[in-house]
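Listing S7. Sequence submitted for prediction.
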Amino acid sequence: MQLPRYLFLPLVFLVACLLPASARDAAKANETLLSATSPFEDMVEFALAKNFASVEKSLAKADGQAAAVKDALPPASVGAFDGQLQALHKVVVAKDHYAVAVCAVEIFRLLLDNLDATKLKVPKEVSLLDYAGFKLHVLAAAPKPDWDAIRKTVAEAAAWWKAAKSKVSEKGLRDAVESTIRGLQQAAQTENLPMLHFAAQIDLDLVDLLEGYFEKKP
């Protein structure tokens, strides 16, 4: 069935208006979620250093962004975010530094998982490599490290790098990340905690360089 011309033209105009708005909304949501990761990254570091004054400041910052985060998240993820944030508050009150680090790094992951990868200048996998570095620091700090969980996180990091490396034409940077991934794999295989911690820190440092590389790309 053909639409009458007087209905067809307004529909075309409406679709043309909605598509750019949808793209803008996705980009804005990405910006909100990426900005919101910062206090949770900070909380991981502060919690592992047992610096609770700074943990509480970062939590206050996260609380200030929570409403915007919930607006940016898909409805199906809002409940999980709320629940994890409430759990984080409880362990901060209890001053359980390791539990704070665990909760904060998982909220970081939830935010990244809800990014729209099609609207990102820096590939989502680069942000996930950032998460992997923080997650490995948390796992390495456990009273009794869970090497199966460590190996799983390292395998995820290797897969994320495999997906991203073809987009990196700068050989020196690509080789540095490749060597770091191999270092993580060797540390996980041999259960070498100092090597794991060192390679995870190099991963975090290289993520900064990867982000700068992609930000500068036309």
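Caption to Listing S7: primary sequence and predicted structure tokens for the chain studied. The chain has eight helices and no strands. The CA atoms of residues 4 and 33 lie 43 Å apart.
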